[in-house]
Design goal:
The complex is a heterodimer of chains A (227) and B (252).
Chain A (H helix, E strand, L loop, with lengths): L6 H5 L2 H33 L4 H15 L3 H14 L6 H26 L3 H9 L4 H31 L11 H12 L2 H30 L1 H6 L4
Chain B lengths: L11 E10 L2 E11 L4 E6 L5 H8 L7 E6 L2 E2 L7 H7 E4 L11 H13 L3 H14 L15 H13 L5 E5 L7 H16 L3 E5 L3 H7 L2 E6 L2 E6 L10 H11 L3
Parallel strand pairs in B: 3-8, 3-9, 6-7, 7-8
Antiparallel strand pairs in B: 1-2, 1-4, 4-5, 9-10
The complex binds adenosine-5'-diphosphate and magnesium ion.
């Protein structure tokens, strides 16, 4: 039994790999930004006095957290199609990933909100700040700071999980790999390269979040306390 | 036209205030008034309702009955303008509650800028001024966690002062501090009193209350049990206050 690897045969397709990696990163970037917004709104909504809003947010979070991502992607894909709506695979993938990561973000942000001491809010109320100002200045940023490591891990996981979007033929990294390996009959080499590329993408994202953390949380920068 | 309150009109007045938490009657018809420039000390055993009475003044608790008027605001009414009320009232808590992610300067300038629309440069001048008042000018750019407990409490007082309140409420602001740090905070409050600030303070520092309070309100089981000038601490008339000041509460 011998293992024969022929990387050059696969590596000559490097422009496709790069294009796939870029698309994966784009998917992740869009879904992260939109999912962070959606998730934060859902977390705020779960604490709403209005039972209907709170219930709807809870139902959303629980449904998503208890169904597979691939099924969610198919639901969005075929759901939109059966409504007669035509979107690109990329748009559908971004929508499905946003809905998915939004639910996880909501859970993480809720923990962040709950970690803000009641006294902080009372102090802000005592200074006559409005509800919106309190949410913005006293709750949101410190909450994000508290859960930042959990949030960023979730966003990296999302990037990795985006590989299932190959199932709806979004031309991201895994879809590209599937195509190349069926063309070259060099499956093992292809997926080794893809694995290395995913590692690089993860490291790029982590470095980006580290830098963003320095900008968002000047106190951490000043006091040298790591996130 | 704005109504100018008569010179004799109190800044804070409570009349027959009642408040329950569930079945627990915490304030059982509390009445007292604070005139402009007056310092009122609320004393009493733990659980007698001092904090609740104080919190009712700034409407952190809604009363069940009675009347509270603070700087012309009818605090007991549901339609009270909360944000207008709280611009007139400063409150400082035992646990400082500085915003940990903001520098001391940002802690102080946040409300003047956001609530009153003060320009940034002016707000920064204001921050310097109030920090000088509490002896912390050099901590302008520090974060709360870099300060001692006493310094944090003084910064919290400065933050309240920056809103230029007409009355300040203090709820056991030195209870979390050791004696040395307590002294530096009390000195700041003493100076405020000397400058004519109207104040209501809940305190366990009987020596301090005796020194600066114009009037003492001794609470017992949700009622004002005995009230009078600071001298009632040395010659109490009710057995409850006698016992209270006798159990080692009256030190220094
Ligand atoms: N939010 C609340 N819910 C229920 N009970 C409360 C609440 N706040 C205070 N109490 C109760 O009311 C009583 C008076 O409390 P408090 O006003 O804090 O007393 P003090 O400040 O004199 O120690 C205590 O028995 C306390 O347990
Ligand atoms: Mg108390």
């Amino acid at each position: 039994m011998s293992l024969q690897l022929d990387f050059p045969a696969v590596l000559e397709r490097w422009p496709s790999f790069v294009a796939g990696a870029v698309l994966t990163l784009e998917l992740a970037a869009f879904a992260t930004v939109l999912g962070a917004l959606l998730g934060t709104l859902a977390a705020v909504g779960r604490g709403a006095h209005n039972a209907l809003i709170a219930g709807a947010c809870k139902a959303y979070v629980e449904t998503i957290r208890n169904t597979p991502l691939l099924v969610q992607i198919f639901l969005v894909y075929f759901g939109l199609a059966s409504l007669g709506l035509k979107f690109s695979a990329f748009t559908v993938a971004v929508a499905a990933l946003t809905i998915n990561v939004g639910a996880y973000t909501a859970e993480i942000m809720r923990a962040g909100f709950e970690a803000i001491p009641r006294g902080q809010i009372e102090a802000a109320e005592g200074l006559a700040l409005s509800r919106l100002q309190i949410y913005w200045h006293i709750i949101l940023l410190p909450a994000i700071e508290k859960v930042y490591p959990a949030l960023t891990s979730q966003f990296v996981l999302l990037m990795l999980a985006s590989s299932v979007c190959s199932q709806i033929s979004a031309e991201e990294l895994t879809a590209v790999a599937n195509y190349i390996q069926s063309d070259t009959y060099r499956a093992f080499e292809t997926y080794i390269i893809v694995a290395v590329l995913y590692v690089i993408l993860s490291l790029v994202m982590r470095a980006g979040f580290w830098g963003l953390g320095l900008v968002l949380f000047p106190r951490r920068r000043r006091l040298g306390t790591p996130l | 036209m704005q109504q100018i309150p008569a010179a004799s009109e109190p800044i804070v007045s409570l009349r027959d205030v009642k408040k329950s938490f569930g079945s627990l009657l915490v304030l059982d018809g509390v009445s007292f008034a604070v005139q402009r420039g007056e310092v009122l000390a609320l004393i009493g055993r733990s659980g007698s309702g001092k904090s609740t009475a104080l919190r009712c003044i700034d409407r952190f608790e809604k009363v069940d009955g009675g009347e509270i008027v603070v700087c012309g605001h009818r605090v007991d009414r549901p339609d009270v303008n909360l944000r207008a009320l709280r611009q007139d009232v400063g409150i400082v808590f035992q646990s400082y509650n500085l915003f940990p992610h903001l520098t001391i300067e940002q802690n102080i300038t946040l409300a003047p800028c956001a609530v009153k629309g003060v320009a940034t440069a002016q707000a920064k001048d204001l921050a310097r001024k109030v920090l000088a008042q509490v002896g912390l000018e050099e901590k302008l750019h520090a974060y709360p966690e870099q300060l001692s407990g006493g310094q944090q409490q003084r910064a919290a007082i400065a933050r309240s002062l920056a809103m230029q309140p007409k009355v300040m409420l203090f709820d056991e602001v030195t209870s979390a501090l050791d004696p040395e740090l307590t002294a530096e905070v009390l000195k700041v409050i003493e100076q405020l009193a000397a400058d004519g600030m109207t104040m209501v303070m809940v305190t366990h520092e009987m020596g301090f209350a005796k020194g600066i309070a114009d009037r003492i309100v001794f609470m017992h089981r949700g009622k004002v049990h005995e009230t009078g000038p600071a001298s009632i601490l040395t010659s109490p008339t009710t057995p409850e206050l006698t016992q209270f000041v006798g159990t080692g509460n009256l030190k220094s």
